[in-house]
Design goal:
about 160 residues, alpha+beta, elongated
């Protein structure tokens, strides 16, 4: 008998409609595609929960992240970008004024896509290790076009 497991990359559709945002508006990650720039600070809510993985993915993207008090700050050409934990234990991205809609969208998307890739790799490695510990034999592994990974174990 065999068991198939599918690891699907975490993906969030970017959509929604925002016309005018008050200063320092909290923007859900799903709505980041529709931000209007008015020289404001933007706070983008993300579904990111693990700061250790976020630090790793920022490093893999080639940026330095500094921890100052309870905040992590990434130096970027157009100003600092801060990462803070919100009341839902998720991590928000704070952009200082001067960022355009495209910059907020691109930077948020790059960070989130890298985070999901790092998270999927961690889950993949943990799953393979646990399967081996339980005596399961990996029969087949397929990476799909959407980067989903299908693992078939003999049990």
């Amino acid at each position: 008998m065999s068991v198939s497991l599918v690891l699907v990359p975490l993906a969030i559709a970017i959509g929604g409609a925002l016309s005018d945002l008050p200063e320092n508006e909290i923007i859900k990650y799903e709505d980041v595609n529709n931000i209007v720039q008015n020289n404001r600070c933007y706070q983008v809510e993300t579904p990111i929960k693990r700061m250790d993985l976020l630090v790793r993915c920022i490093s893999e993207l080639g940026y330095d992240l500094q921890k100052i008090n309870d905040k992590y700050i990434m130096k970027y050409t157009d100003g600092d970008i801060e990462f803070i934990r919100n009341s839902n234990s998720q991590i928000d991205i704070l952009f200082s004024s001067g960022y355009s809609q495209d910059q907020v969208q691109n930077i948020s998307s790059d960070i989130y896509n890298q985070y999901t890739s790092v998270l999927q790799a961690e889950i993949y490695n943990t799953l393979k290790q646990k399967a081996e510990e339980r005596g399961y034999t990996l029969e087949n592994e397929v990476i799909e076009d959407d980067n989903s990974i299908v693992l078939n174990f003999i049990v």
